[in-house]
Automatic annotation (TrEMBL):
PROSITE patterns: ZF_MYND_1, ZF_MYND_2. Keywords: Metal-binding, Zinc, Zinc-finger. It comes from Proboscia inermis. It comes from the Eukaryota. The keyword Zinc applies. This is MYND-type domain-containing protein. One of its GO terms (molecular function) is zinc ion binding. Residues 147-188 form the MYND-type domain.
Length: 191
């Protein structure tokens, strides 16, 4: 299972024939859905199952209310959303696996808002184990930073970019920065 382009919880099951060694490689699906190991198992690095061959079947998954209590569930998985997801992961400079780790850590952190950050209990449960070990509180907090224009979090986008002038304001990319420039230029030099 994995994430669609803007999901805050693991919202799709991805089915493919792991035993298929003769169909053409589905490069788009291989890149877009390389978030987890077989059966949705989290691994300490990118999945090792190799290329997806042939077709894939995608099914919408209901949220786990224990980790995502405030998420609105929509059972429909439309063509536009699938297309947007494939294009997002195809064009992302950040791997699908790293984006999934970031989203996992933010989701887990938000499901336990009452935990004080400095306590050992909070450190054990509010951070997520990734390929480089435990993600720090600082990393998890950065994943919650938002684009100043559209409001998407870094965990959704992959990596936000700072305004090159003020080095403070964050954006998804050039399009958001350009759209926000008229408003931002008034305060940019003051920051």
């Amino acid at each position: 299972f994995g994430y669609t382009a803007e999901a805050t919880y693991k919202d799709i099951y991805i089915y493919f024939d792991f035993a298929d060694k003769v169909s053409p490689v589905n490069h788009l699906a291989t890149k877009a859905f390389s978030m987890y190991g077989l059966g949705g198992a989290q691994e300490m690095g990118p999945p090792k199952w190799g290329n997806i061959r042939g077709s894939v079947v995608l099914v919408r998954l209901e949220p786990d209310r224990g980790f995502s209590p405030n998420v609105t569930y929509c059972s429909t998985l439309g063509f536009d959303e699938i297309y947007k997801t494939l294009v997002f992961f195809r064009d992302s400079k950040t791997s699908a696996h790293k984006i999934a780790l970031k989203r996992d850590s933010v989701r887990m952190r938000e499901s336990m808002p009452g935990l004080p950050g400095g306590q050992p209990f909070a450190q054990n449960f509010s951070h997520y184990m990734g390929p480089g070990g435990v993600r720090t509180e600082h990393q998890v907090n950065e994943d919650q930073d938002k684009c100043d224009h559209c409001g998407k979090t870094q965990s959704i986008v992959g990596k936000l970019k700072k305004c090159q002038r003020c080095k403070v304001t964050l954006y998804c990319g050039k399009e958001c920065q350009k759209s926000a420039w008229k408003k931002h230029k008034k305060i940019c030099r003051q920051l």
